Amino acid sequence: TQPLVDVRDLRVHFFTPEGVVKAVDGVSFTVERGQTVSLVGESGSGKSMTALSFLRLIDPPGKIVGGEILFKGRELVRLPERELRRIRGGEIGFVFQEPMTALNPVLPVGEQIAEALLAHTLFDRKEAWERAVELLRQVGIPRPEGVVSSYPHELSGGMRQRVGIAIAIANNPDLVIADEPTTALDVTIQAQILDLLRTLREERNMALLLITHDLGVVAEMADYVLVMYAGRIVEAGPVEAIFDDPRHPYTRGLLRAKPVIGRRERRLYAIPGQVPNLLNLPPGCAFFDRCTFRMPHCRTVFPPYVEVGPGHFVACHLEVKEA
Ligand code: SF4
Ligand code: MG
Hints:
binds magnesium ion, four-stranded antiparallel β-sheet, Rossmann fold
């Protein structure tokens, strides 16, 4: 059977006056129905651009220049805009980092949920409003009959994110893409929102593509992990393999400063050096400048993917065995 999502060789380039920035450079992965796949990496690694490609919300000078995104067998990169609109907010829901930017400040939240419903169903206004109250209840908002008439600024950050999630799930999507959904929230609220996402995913058998820089979130939520660096996936595998047997020097670096249970810190890791300038990537491995294991040919030869365990892939010359 075909996977729910099949991304093949996705490329998103930015055509800047200084040159072409390859923000996403040959990314491939699949998501199965009901699965949580986490895309992890530092900011600037291309993870948000990968997510936005599903919506085709890449602003100029950015452009999807290659690859395919197959969703339930339909190819989204070249799908006519009309058909994409039906999928966007319908079969695919989105949760953003800062709900305030996703919500309209001058409309009651109930109106905004109702709008999402009206765009994809045959409900009338009254039915949509009633459904909005029900959705607010499902995302754990107390007294939803009152909150439905509130404006976003009257709600806390956590409540606003619950509203954002209500909109994302309004039309029973098969896939929810959440880009740093808890990064803007306090740690306690963060845990509640993650619990909510996990519960909704299980109850509704939705797949979740969870984008985060936080390995604590990955450990708690993901079935499968994609580690992104400089526009490419450098390691991919089942969550246990990534945490118990990380192979890529970048992944190992991320995990070395793994969060300690009970110690709550925002910054979870720090690998010496900077994410490379995407305008001047070496022709070989993009991690070369920061890698303590580097070998001379790493700079010039592109590291191929090597399968090191079931479903566990690494792009690193250390894994290439001599023939
Ligand atoms: Fe380090 Fe070479 Fe592996 Fe790149 S390919 S991560 S430089 S060892
Ligand atoms: Mg981002």
